[in-house]
Amino acid sequence: MSPPLPGPLAHLEPLLGHYGYWAVGAVVLVEDFGVPAPGETILLAAGVYAGTGRLDVVAVAAVAFVAAVAGDNLGYLIGRTGGRPFVHRWGRYVLLTPKRFEAAEEFFRRHGGRIVTVARFVEGLRQANGVIAGTTGMRWRRFLAFNALGAALWVGLWTTLAYLAGSHITAVYDEIRRYQLYALAAALVVVAGFAVRHILRRRHER
């Protein structure tokens, strides 16, 4: 008999036990178009499950990737067609208040398309990512490219870590989350550096 899931992952054991890959896909999907759901948590739990042989790690990663991209694109469609009025009317039911939405939208505009990739690793932005991209008018192909990259990195990181760390994943996850803000800041500095370099190069060419 395989050991139970560790710590806060334990409550997902019945869901994974009964529905397996369907549970992973469904929870990641709904989280990614704005519904509060434990998408990252179920990804970790599924990775641990795969490490004990109860799921296939490649299948977990594939299902999670497809669900993440599809969920964000559904969010993009909602933002693009419904716009801000839709978000202001219904967003509060998924904890996306107008104030939070405006702050996230401003952050999104300031940092451009690359933030779509980084947002995947930030709680709150991950759920609103697609909706904000839609309301700000980002071109769909550009959004899709950055979104797919973010989804691949996010799924790859947590699935692999959970698969390898096993019952120690909660301690590893807590440690990574502790330094997440520093990692985000570093990523933004890199993005800003590329942006400044691009602007200076354009000016030099002129």
Fraction in beta strands = under 5%
Task: Give the ordered list of helices and strands.
Answer: HHHHHHHHHH
Largest sheet: none
State the helix count.
10
Q: How many strand units?
A: 0
What is the helical fraction, as a range of percent?
A: over 70%
Low-confidence stretches: none
How does the helix and strand content classify structurally? mainly alpha
Radius of gyration: 18 Å
Explain how this protein is built.
This protein is mainly alpha-helical. It has 10 helices and no strands. Helix 2 packs parallel to helix 4, helix 4 packs across helix 8 and helix 5 packs across helix 7. The longest helix is centred in the middle third of the chain and has 34 residues. The protein starts with 12 loop residues before the first helix and ends with a helix. 36% of the residues are buried. The model has no long low-confidence stretch (mean pLDDT 76).
What's this, in brief?
The chain has 206 residues and is mainly alpha-helical. 76% of the residues lie in helices and 0% in strands.
Defining key terms:
single chain; 206 residues; globular
Give the topology, please.
Blueprint: H1 13-19, H2 21-31, H3 39-51, H4 57-90, H5 98-111, H6 115-119, H7 125-135, H8 140-165, H9 169-178, H10 180-205
